[in-house]
Every structure is written in structure tokens, then in C-alpha cells.
Design goal:
- By secondary structure, the chain is an alpha/beta fold.
- The chain folds into 2 domains: about 100 residues, no CATH class; about 325 residues, SET domain (Beta-clip-like, Beta Complex), CATH 2.170.270.10.
- Helix content is about 25%, strand content about 15%.
- The protein has 9 helices and 17 strands.
- The strands form 5 sheets. The chain has a 5-stranded mixed beta sheet, with no helix packed on it. Strands 3-10-12-11 form a 4-stranded mixed beta sheet. The protein has a 4-stranded mixed beta sheet with strand order 6-15-16-9, with no helix packed on it.
- The longest helix has 21 residues.
- The chain is globular.
- One of its GO terms (cellular component) is nucleus.
- Keywords: Chromosome, Metal-binding, Nucleus, Transferase, Zinc.
- This is Histone-lysine N-methyltransferase SUVR4.
- It comes from Ambrosia artemisiifolia.
- It is found in: Chromosome; Nucleus.
């Protein structure tokens, strides 16, 4: 940088932010003769919001822009610029130089805007269009959704009013463990216990082996045809976690308060070829680790259906998560009580987690926190196995690729799993699906959650 006439005062703040963005990985910065550092310095001021925090004079800026053009000219006369590749991101070196010069990269230091306890960077290696949404750390109600958060609604039997300190250290588990059979679902290390996690995985993998309940007046079918709805196709009975909340006497450090404290692992949003944005962790994650909650707008099922009908044909969106785990417990569920989550316009990092059929490394588990009933609950993601650093995080949306009547058409699956349920790809290729028994077993449970999937961003 000194040879290019760039002072230390200009380099230092840029280098500091790059090291923070790349988790102190110096090799990513020094590759290709410090190309990343040069790009960060030469980038125009109007696109340096997440990199340069200082300012320079207009004369200095003009000189820097001239040197940048000169640097590009020299490189064009010698050899192609190799696109930087970070761990876990595949690249096509044959076209990397074209992509690097024709597309603008979008790197953001923290997509949460300081709303989470950790920073979650967005790292773009291929010039992907940046996502358009507002990051929120907690669910927000859209309009008609009935979600009452009231201390008065929580009876003494539904909380541990007399506890103090950490509930996991008690000899006798408190009332908040009743939902999980009188034992807490978490270990003292904040991980899910193996027996609880394995049961949840089994219930999702083989739903027909577990109890299915049917609504007398199914909100999902009623939204499709209010006057002549089809019979309920069944909903999977799922295990819940009950966390301590504000009426409990324990502290926020209690081991039974994991999801409500938000994400703590080093997550990153990164660009991919073919699948849009994705999520990974920059550190090793043991089995049973909490990743994040699926956060979005709380809608009624009717609001969701109307929103999907009114949306533009080519509009990008995320597929919603249907909160249907308790629909069968009521004889008739009111429209404002049949809820779902939509992270299209307002959401958190979970909206970028991609789908993978059957053998994903994450599982979603219902978590009850504020309310004593299951009409509204939180969707929390946990690791199904040990996760290596920079391995992409995925979860099975439960998508039914054969559901031609659904208002939102299923996307073409890019999961590359040997158990992929998108038979359209196999038919187009003239082949047949392998592991057919596994595929059928998985797909059979998706009929109860036809809205429970998200489009690749």
C-alpha cells in the first residue's frame, strides 16, 4: 500500500475492520498480493459503510481512484485475478475474474444492526444481489394474530415462582420441566440431551410411526376453500421445550433459558452459486447446540393465504413456518389463533438457512416461553450432529414437491442430497429416485406442514 502512495492512516481502519469481518484470518487478506485490502481501500465512499469508518479529503480520494484504475489496468495486462474463496464456498476459477470485475461484492459487518449479542457478517464472494429485509431479533405481530403475553395468564403451576439461581442445579426439577416429562431438555452446558434430541429427530423422520392428530375444522384446508374445505390431512404430534420466563424466580443465567437469550455461536451469512444466500458457523458446534430461532411476522393463516395470493408472480419471498403443533387439541380453532411466521420482510438470520431433504444437519423444535398454551410458540434450531467449522447449516423444510394445489409453488430443489424428494428433477433426467422407502417416509409427514418451507434467497 505504501508503494501505491496510500498512507498508514488510511490503511489502519480498513485493515482493522477486515480482520474483524474475517475472524482474524490474515490469509484471506494477504491472498493475491493483498487484493482484498486494495479493493476495500479503493471502493467508492458511498459503498464503504461497512468497511471504512474514517474519512479522507476529496483530493486524496481522487488520487486513490486513479491508482485503483492503474492497478486494474496492470492486472488486466498480466494474468486473470483469482476470486477469493473462503472455507466452505465453492468457486469456478474459469469465470472468477469475469465475475470479480463485472459484479459488485456486498460485504456487511453485521446484518443484525447491533440487535443481537453477537455480530453476524454477510460475506459475498460472487456479487450476489443483497437481501432486502429488516432484521428483527424477536417475532412481531402483523395485524390480526392473537398473541397475548400476560403475567396474569400464567398460573403458578405453569412457572417456578419460588425458584432462585439456576433451575438445572435443583435436586428436584421445577414445574417448568413438566412439558419434557419431569426432566429438563438441556444439559448444564446448554446442549439438548441426547434422548430428547434423538426422539425429536425420529418423530420428524418417521412421522407415520408416531401419533398424528386431525383437526375437525382444519385452518389449513379452510384457508384454501372456506365454504367447502377438505378433511384435515393430519398434523404431526411434536415434543415441546418449556423454558422459564418472567414469572419464574430464577435468573437469566438459568440453564433452562437458552432460546430466549438469542444466538451465541459465530454465524455467517455467505453467498453461494445456485442456492443464493446460506448460513454457516465459523466455529465447531457439538451435537445439540442451539443455533438460532426462526423469527418473522406473526400472521394468521388467513392473512398468510391472502398475502400469497396478492404477491407478484416473480416476487422473492421466504416460505412461512406454520405453527400447527397444537391445532388438533381444540375442537374448533378460531382464525386469529391459527398462526404462522413469515420472514419475507422482517426476519432474522434463520431466513437464510437453506433446505436439505432428509439428511439436514439442523432440526426445528417448538419452544414455549411466554404463553402457557401451544397456539403460539417459538421455532428453535438445534444441531442434529457435530458440525465442522464453515460447514453450511441446513434444515428440512418438510416441503411436499408434489403439492400442485398450494398457492406458492415449490422451488426446484438444489439440496444435492441422495434422499432428495423433488422427483421432478429425476423425471426430467429420465431416472428414478434411490432410497425410495426413505423418501416416502419423510414426505408422508410433510402433508401436515405444507407451508413449512422457505424459498432460497
Amino acid at each position: 500500500m505504501k508503494e501505491l502512495g496510500i498512507s498508514r492512516e488510511v490503511v489502519k481502519p480498513v485493515l482493522k475492520n477486515l480482520l474483524e469481518l474475517y475472524d482474524m484470518n490474515w490469509k484471506l487478506i494477504e491472498e493475491n498480493n493483498y487484493r482484498t485490502l486494495a479493493d476495500a481501500i479503493f471502493e467508492p465512499l458511498d459503498s464503504k459503510k461497512s468497511i471504512a469508518e474514517g474519512s479522507t479529503s476529496s483530493n486524496t480520494n481522487t488520487a486513490i481512484h486513479k491508482k485503483r484504475r492503474k492497478l486494474i489496468q496492470v492486472e488486466d495486462e498480466t494474468e486473470p485475478i483469482v476470486n477469493l474463496t473462503r472455507p466452505g464456498v465453492q468457486s469456478d476459477n474459469s469465470s472468477s475474474s469475469v465475475q470479480r470485475k463485472s459484479k459488485k461484492l456486498h460485504n456487511i459487518n453485521d446484518i443484525t444492526r447491533g440487535t443481537e449479542k453477537i455480530k453476524i457478517p454477510l460475506i459475498d464472494d460472487i456479487g450476489l444481489e443483497p437481501p432486502k429485509f429488516l432484521y428483527i431479533p424477536q417475532n412481531i405481530s402483523y395485524q390480526d394474530a392473537y398473541v397475548p403475553f400476560s403475567i396474569a395468564r400464567i398460573s403458578d403451576r405453569d412457572c417456578c415462582l419460588n425458584c432462585n439461581g439456576d433451575c438445572l442445579s435443583r435436586r428436584v426439577p421445577c414445574a417448568c420441566s413438566r412439558e419434557t416429562g419431569g426432566e429438563f431438555a438441556y444439559t448444564p452446558q446448554g446442549l439438548l440431551k441426547d434422548y430428547f434430541l434423538n426422539t425429536c429427530i425420529s418423530m420428524k423422520r418417521d412421522p407415520q410411526d408416531h401419533h398424528l392428530f386431525h383437526c375437525q375444522d382444519c385452518p389449513l384446508e379452510k384457508a384454501k376453500n372456506e365454504h367447502n374445505p377438505e378433511p384435515c390431512k393430519g398434523h404431526v404430534l411434536r415434543k415441546f421445550i418449556k423454558e422459564c420466563w418472567r414469572k419464574c424466580g430464577c435468573t437469566m443465567d438459568c440453564g433452562n433459558r437458552v432460546v430466549q437469550r438469542g444466538p451465541t455461536c459465530k454465524l455467517q451469512v455467505f453467498s453461494t452459486e445456485g442456492k443464493g444466500w446460506a448460513v454457516r458457523s465459523a466455529e465447531y458446534l457439538p451435537k445439540g447446540s442451539f443455533i438460532c430461532e426462526y423469527v418473522g411476522e406473526i400472521l394468521t393463516n388467513t392473512e398468510l393465504y391472502e398475502r400469497n395470493k396478492q404477491g407478484r408472480k416473480n416476487e422473492r419471498h421466504t416460505y412461512p413456518v406454520l405453527l400447527d403443533a397444537d391445532w388438533g387439541s381444540e375442537r374448533v380453532l378460531e382464525d386469529e389463533e391459527a398462526l404462522c411466521l413469515d420472514a419475507t420482510h422482517f426476519g432474522n438470520v434463520a431466513r437464510f438457512i437453506n433446505h436439505r431433504c432428509h439428511d439436514s444437519n439442523l432440526i426445528e423444535i417448538p419452544v414455549e416461553i411466554e404463553t402457557p398454551h401451544h397456539h403460539y410458540y417459538h421455532i428453535a434450531f438445534f444441531t442434529k450432529r457435530n458440525i465442522d467449522p464453515y460447514e453450511e447449516l441446513t434444515w428440512d423444510y418438510g416441503i411436499d414437491f408434489d403439492d400442485v394445489d398450494h398457492p406458492i409453488k415449490a422451488f426446484e430443489c438444489q439440496c444435492a442430497s441422495p434422499y432428495c424428494r423433488d422427483r421432478r428433477k429425476a423425471i426430467a433426467a429420465g431416472g428414478t429416485k434411490k432410497k425410495d422407502s426413505v423418501v416416502k417416509g419423510t414426505a408422508s409427514g410433510s402433508t401436515s406442514r405444507k407451508l413449512n418451507y422457505k424459498q432460497v434467497q
